[in-house]
Amino acid sequence: MGSGARRRMTEYADAGDTLVLSDVLEAAGSAGRRVALERVEDIDSTNAELLRRAPAERQAVALLAEHQSGGRGRRGRDWHSPRGRNVYLSLGWRFAPARSDLVMLPLVVAVAAARALKSLGATDIGIKWPNDLWLDGCKVGGCLVETTSSAGGMDAVIGVGLNVGMTGDPGARNIERQWADLRDQLPDLSRSRAAGALLAHLVRAAEAFSAAGFAGFAQDWVRMDVLRGRTVVIERDGAELDGRALGLGAGGGLLVDGPDGPVECMAGEVRVHTVDGRPL
Q1: Fewer CB within 10 A of the terminal residue: the chain, N end or C end?
Q2: How many whole angstroms separate alpha carbon 185 and alpha carbon 136?
Q3: In the sheet that 254-258 helps form, which strands lie side by side, from edge to edge?
Q4: Which residues, including other chains, have CB under 8 Å from residue 27's CB and lie 6 or more apart?
Q5: What is d(CA 125, CA 24) in angstroms, rounded to the nearest whole number?
Q6: CATH class of domain segment(s) 231-279
Q7: Whole-model pTM?
Q8: CA 274 to chain CA centroid, nearest Å
Q9: What does CATH list as the number for 3-224?
Q10: What is the DSSP letter of 71?
Q11: pLDDT in tens, 172-218
Q12: 81 sits in which H/E element
C-alpha cells in the first residue's frame, strides 16, 4: 500500500468516520427500505440489544453501533470493537418454524457478507468455516447467528463485524491472530458505504434463504471455502483431530478426512486450530 493510501486511512480515523444513516441507506438501495435501520453510539453488543427485545420488536430491524463494549464472536470470544473504525451490524429476522435447514443459516450469512465485500471491490475474499471472512489470507470479519424460537417462528439475530479502519487503533496490537482491514485494499472506503453494502446483502440473503434454502448459496460457498483441500487440526471433544478438509458435510459441518475416514464436525462442538500448520 502506498503512502497516500496510508495517509487517507489515518485521515478517516482522525476525522471520526461516523456512520450516517442516510448514506448507509443510499448504499443499501431498495433492500434498505425493507428494514428499520437504527444507529446507537455505545452499546454492549448489537446482538445482545436485539435479543433483549421481544421477537416482534426486532423483526426486520437492523442495528448499527459506533462502539461495542462487549462485542462477541463465536464460542463467547471477545470481539474488539473500537469506536468509529469498523462496522458492527445486527439484523433481526424471522424464519418459518418448521424449517429443517436453519443449521445452514450461519453459512448463508458468511456468503452474504463475502458477496458484500466483493461488491465493494475487495479481492481475494474467502470464508473459513463456518463463518469467518478472510481478506488476503487474514481475518477481516466474522459472523454470529443466535436464534430463539417462538409461536410465530424461529427468530434469528444475525451479527456481522467487519474491520474497515482498524489500522492505527492502539488496542489492535493485542489481537493474537492476524487480521486485515478493508482499507488495506480500499483506502477510500467509508464505513457508511461498507455498512450499506453489508445490509443490502444480508437482507437479500435472508429473503432468498427463506424462499429457497441454501441452494442459492452453495456454489459461492464452494468457490470461497479457504479450508477445502487443506490440512487442518480440529479441537473436538477434548482431543485433536488431524486431517484434510473436504468441504461441507450434509448437515453444514466441516467434513474432515481423518485417520478413520470422513468425519463431519459441527460448528458448536469444534474449533479449527491450525490450517496447513498455521495457528488460527
Answers
A1: N
A2: 9
A3: 261-265, 254-258, 239-248, 231-236, 270-275, 278-279
A4: 192, 193, 195, 196, 197, 199, 200
A5: 22
A6: mainly beta
A7: 0.89
A8: 20
A9: 3.30.930.10
A10: -
A11: 777 767 889 999 999 999 999 999 999 999 999 999 999 999 999 99
A12: none
